[in-house]
Specification:
Layout (H helix, E strand, L loop, with lengths): L9 E3 L6 E3 L3 E2 L5 H14 L3 E3 L7 H11 L7 E6 L6 H15 L7 E4 L6 H16 L6 E4 L3 H6 L11 E5 L7 H10 L2 E5 L11 H10 L3 H11 L3 E2 L6 H6 L10 H8 L18
Helix pairs in contact: 1-2, 3-4, 7-8
């Protein structure tokens, strides 16, 4: 029997007093005209954690949804991501501040990530130093990375004042378990967030997954989200369909057994199982 989980569960970040809700709501490809409605539906359903990014072009709408919800600012955890370096720490810092101002919620976000390591070593350093400044100034309560492998995070030791990063957000689901970077993060206390946890519904007809869903009287997305929670990941399911937004949060009335978890673990395809990208663990 897994530990009892609840929708209001939080997880502490390393070397920090910040606590993050264990279930997040993703807004990738949520167009501005529907993003506010989707975020409001999520907040009504009990989500208290929204994951945005500069690349998604909906930071303004995320902030507006939180304001319209009338929830206290402290009760909603907001993440965004810097897409690329500006060319100097100062210019990268300005890009960070611009996002905080677009979101417009009491002058801070709860988590600011580097979206990708792909800009190269100098760009990663520049963005991290800009994030550290935002963190020191209270514009980002916590800072982290996304799509970083072991080598990228180890490299940061050479210049980082904040190490380890508080979070690493990577693609995670049974077909892409990224065991090397997951084990590294768990060892160092880095909170692991799972994007594409329901595999964009590409695996809804997988016979192994469907059998487990039928066993528990749940849909396949609910099984995948519950799997993430029991793996100690922070899943970020995304939907713009109100009924699915609600259903994706209804994952606290069943447990996946040890055997169920082993069955899902057995679906791993390594990097080949990724639908977006698997991290590179060597530089």
């Amino acid at each position: 029997m897994a530990a009892k989980l609840a929708i209001n569960d939080v997880i502490g970040l390393p070397h920090s007093t910040v606590k993050m809700p264990r279930l997040g709501f993703g807004v990738y490809q949520s167009h501005p005209d529907i993003c506010i409605k989707s975020c409001l539906a999520a907040l009504r359903a009990g989500y208290r954690h929204i994951d945005s990014a500069q690349y998604y072009a909906n930071e303004v709408q995320v902030g507006e949804a939180v304001r319209q919800s009338k929830l206290p600012r402290k009760d909603v955890f907001i993440t965004t991501k810097i897409l690329g370096a500006g060319g100097s720490p100062e210019k990268s810092y300005k890009r960070i501040v611009d996002s905080v101002e677009k979101i417009g919620l009491d002058g801070y976000v709860d988590l600011f990530l580097i979206h990708s390591p792909s800009g190269g070593s100098a760009a990663r350093k520049e963005m991290w130093q800009a994030l550290e400044k935002a963190h020191e100034e209270g514009k980002a309560r916590s800072i982290g990375v996304s799509n970083f492998g072991v080598g990228h995070i180890e490299e940061m030791k050479g210049y980082a004042k904040v190490w380890p990063p508080h979070v690493n957000q990577i693609e995670l689901h049974p077909w892409c378990q990224q065991r090397t970077i997951d084990a590294f993060c768990q060892k160092h206390g880095i909170v692991v967030q799972a994007y594409s946890p329901i595999v964009r519904n590409h695996k809804a007809d997988d016979p192994t997954l469907k059998k487990l869903a039928d066993k528990h009287g749940k849909n396949t997305a609910q099984v995948l989200i519950r799997y993430c929670l029991q793996k100690n990941w922070v899943p970020l399911p995304k939907s713009d369909t109100p009924e699915r937004i609600v259903a994706n949060a209804e994952v606290y009335d069943f447990d996946l057994s040890k055997e169920d978890m082993e069955t899902l673990d057995g679906l791993d395809q390594g990097a080949q199982g990724a639908i977006v990208q698997a991290v590179k663990n060597t530089l």
